[in-house]
Each structure stands twice: as structure tokens, then as C-alpha cells.
Amino acid sequence: MCLDKWGAVQVLSKKICVVGTFSGKLGRAVTKNNELTREMNNIGTKVIQIDFGKCINRGIGILNILIRLSRYKQILASLSVRQRWVLLPYFMLLILFKRHICLLVIGGAFGDQLMRMPFFVRALYVKMLNKLDLIVVETCALRKQLEGLGVKNAIRLPNFKRSVKYFVKNEQKRELEMVFFPCNRKQRGVRCNRSM
Q1: Number of other residues whose CB lies within 10 A of the CB of residue 181
Q2: Mean of the pLDDT values across residues 139-158?
């Protein structure tokens, strides 16, 4: 995945490897990763999943994940903080071999995590992030925060969910274009009163 000359996200081939958490405790990452791969399959992209959590829990180990990742030209990484620490240096090696890597950031704390790093470590980490083809974040605030820290290739893609059909009491069918289920936090731009 990369940006074309007009700034639109472009999938370079019809085959992509997605590495992240797909099973285990149901939460943001598992839901988003499964929804993303389902939608990519629906548009005709062949998705190969590498379930980071399942591989580590089964004792297959990080080495097996690294070997499996090296087979693919296009990688979408949807990783937790610890998983990013482990795989980002390896991604730098893969980029030398003309691999295209996109990092999908889940949640809004990534900028704060970068700010808490010691200056030298943060500078090195930002340099590595800038070598990735794309960094996809959920909010404009996070994108701006990353840009302020020197990250140049971040774009915003809000949470998404397939259209949901529902029925109103008078039995008229109406279709929603999008349903957004955010965490009720200021960083997400969600401000509501307690009665909501």
C-alpha cells in the first residue's frame, strides 16, 4: 500500500500479508483486523493473515514470523506497542529488499508513547517510521501530533464498519452508510453528555 500522486491510498498488488492480532480476547485490535481483512477479501484482494498473538502463544516464535513475513512484497502491519518494537527494525531490513510496508495504528496513544521515549531513541524510531510507505492513524489529532514529532507519512483513516441494515418500528427499511463506535474520549473528538 502506498499513496499515489493525488494522495489516495493505492494497493500495489492483489495479494497482501496482514500481520497483527486476529484471535484471542475480543477487543479493538481483533475487531478492526478481522473487519479489515474481511473487507479486503470482499474487494478481491487475497489476504494472508499472520496472527502474531497465536504464533507467539503456540511457541512457534518470532523467528517463524520473520521468515513468513519475508515471503511477501506487500505487508500491512496492525500491531500493538510491543509488537511494533519487535518488528519495526526487521521492517527496515525488508525495505532494503523492496518490500512495501504500511503500519496501521490502533488507538490514539501512539503519539504519547513516542513522546515518552528518550530523545535519541525517539529520533531513531521516527527515522524508521519515515521509511515505511504509509502510517494509518484513526484521528486528525494523532496525525498532527505525529507530524509535530517528525513523522512525514501519516494519513488518517477513521474506524469503519460495513453498512448495517436495521428496521424502524413502522417497518420501513433504512440503510446506514456508516456506523462509528468510538471510545468515548476527548482525543477521538467525541464529546457527549452523561445522558447519552
Answers
A1: 8
A2: 90
Looking at the domain assignment, is residue 195 inside a domain?
Answer: no
Query: How many domains is the chain built from?
Result: 1
61 φ/ψ sector (left φ>0, alpha ψ -120 to 50, else beta): left
Q: What is the pLDDT of residue 96?
A: 84
196 exposed, middle or buried (CB, 10 Å; 0-12, 13-18, 19+)?
exposed
Biggest distance spanned by C-alpha atoms of the chain: 62
- Domain span at residue 41 reads 2-162
**CA–CA distance, 57 with 52 (Å, rounded to integer):** 9
Coil, strand or helix at 100 = strand
Average confidence (pLDDT) over 119-126: 91
CA distance 42 to 68: 24
Confidence of residue 175 (pLDDT cuts 50, 70, 90): low
Predicted confidence (pLDDT) at residue 22 exceeds the cutoff of 50? yes
> pLDDT-based confidence at 146, cuts 50/70/90?
very high
Beta bridge partners of 25: none
Task: Output the pLDDT for position 5.
Answer: 46
Please tell me the predicted confidence (pLDDT) of residue 67.
83
CA–CA separation, 26 vs 143, rounded Å?
26
Tell me the CATH number at 13.
3.40.50.11930
